[in-house]
Amino acid sequence: KNKRRLVRALEILYATKKPIPILHLKTNQGKMPPYDILKIGIAIPQKKLLRNIKVRLRARLKKGMLAEIKQLHQSGVSWERLHAFGLEYRYASRYLRGMISKNEMIRAIEVESLQYAKRQIKWWKKDPCVLWVSSRSQAIRVIKPWLAREKNN
User: Fold this and answer.
1) Which of 49, 77, 86, 138 lies 20 to 30 Å (CA to CA) from residue 41?
2) What is the overall mean pLDDT for the chain?
3) Is 98 helix (H, G, I), strand (E, B) or coil?
4) Which uninterrupted H or E stretch holds 88?
5) Which H or E element spans position 130?
């Protein structure tokens, strides 16, 4: 019933010539999957999260994000379709059309990326099965016993 996911599934099928694996996760009937899952959430302070977003965006820009988007449009992808690709494409296409400045584009992507990340964190925090960690060593302390238990099963 989700057109975007259907199109993406068809793209994967066309590219790989293999069907999309279906994960039978917990359904609305309350049935659990036939395998054990370890869900780990990485707790990142908001300042560090924003810094990571800024670093990632600068790297994407340096690697040619704007040239990629310009080339996509020149090859026939409409501005409306680029808008639907996601927030980086949305604001970059506005910049490329002269609707906003480069600084406005960068700031808008940073702000909306942070807002999106906060929504994701809020959504995952509702899941009581997620174990939240704030460091690599803490993650290892959670993972090792779980892997050992899985190995013995």
Assistant:
1) 86
2) 87
3) coil
4) helix 87-96
5) strand 130-133
